[in-house]
Amino acid sequence: MAPKFGTSGLRGLVTELTDELVADYVHAFLSTVRPGTLYLGRDLRPSSPRIAKVIRDTAQAAGVDVADCGALGTPALALASMGAKAPAIMVTGSHIPADRNGLKFYLPEGEVSKQDEAAINAAYAERSRYKGHETGACRDAPEAEARYVARYIDAFGTDALGGLRIGVYRHSSVARDTMETIFRGLGAEIVPLAQSDTFIPVDTEAVDPETRDRLRSWCHEHRLDAIASTDGDADRPMLSDETGKVIPGDILGVLSARLLGAKSVVTPVSSNDMVRRLPEFDEVILTRIGSPFVIEGMARAAHPEIVGFEANGGFLLGFEARIAAPLSPLPTRDCMLPILAPLAAAQRSRTCLTELVAALPPCFTAADRVQDIDTEKAKAFLDALIRDDTARTAFFAPFGHIATTDLTDGLRVDFDSGDVLHLRPSGNAPEFRIYAQAQNEDKALALVRHAYQSVASAVS
Fold first, then answer.
1. Residues taking part in catalysis
2. Tell me: the pLDDT tens digits for 286-314?
């Protein structure tokens, strides 16, 4: 399968992301934005330095200056490029395995939209070539990460997390050092955990049972108040409570939106329905899955105090919030804010994360993914469930009686019982996503387990 745009960026097998293809996409992007300077960042995948070099060389040869930020998180790169009013390219495959990689494109105003992606694809198809001034210069830009760190320490205050003992699961997150610096700057004590020199594709939306067991063991062994981590490029958070239990990303989003005083919230249809039950939010807009759709929804919001978040926890801040000091907008998926805000909220209320979450309306989610699917079979399977009433009724009969369906993104089925199953193919990899909601956690997990078996037999 040739590299293509998914829910966030261009993705493909490393073997397909050839130097020629990468260079062609760089020219296509430069042709659409016509910049003087390009910001560049990358994650820790083995293939990322090679791809970053191709981007750097191509941009310079096209007469574009390059600010090379090195290995850093996607939101830190976006913050730096937006501050400089320059476009950016991040080399990352996010949470998918190391045999894959990709490019995320940023305009001077932030993430590209689906319309922007279409323009880039059109320029790529035409093999557009951009030529600016003479050969571009290249400089290292270490200030990008420093600015990102300072943004949070300044806004939350140096004692915001004082007294907390936080584990940082380092695996191969490009932000592992950044997280530790921010936590220390906010007064927390840090316990580094399990750094890996081999890339580990941690999916914060579907954390595997082995990792969950390790988190519980680490919390007990080190007497931790929380464990924090991110996906590969640090635009998705992972936060556990003091027992090692992972807090779902959409719950982190709700807690963060409350602390920030948001009035309008934009989130995909796959997110926990709890967000629609909280009186603090005057408006909730539901979208398709993917940050470009969330950003489009944020543009339609009725209130200036607007935030967006996804079920994976990536958080977009659309207004200047105030915590201990002002926090500037960052309308791109970010991992740190939805980690810091719940921790700070727990500290303010002198409680723990478990109690903070328990005080929310009872609505529980679970998610999993069937990997290495046959994409054609998956498409035919989902099309049949959408178009054929008999096939849909038969497939979902073991889970309950269908009350309503929603086709915003894939197929979401609400049952008479109040339970929910939501099925959709991944936009970034040969995977099929399964989401569930129920009134208790055990039921949500059971729904996902049972649906997984049925889906796997149909799409593998």
1. 94
2. 999 888 899 999 999 999 999 999 988 99
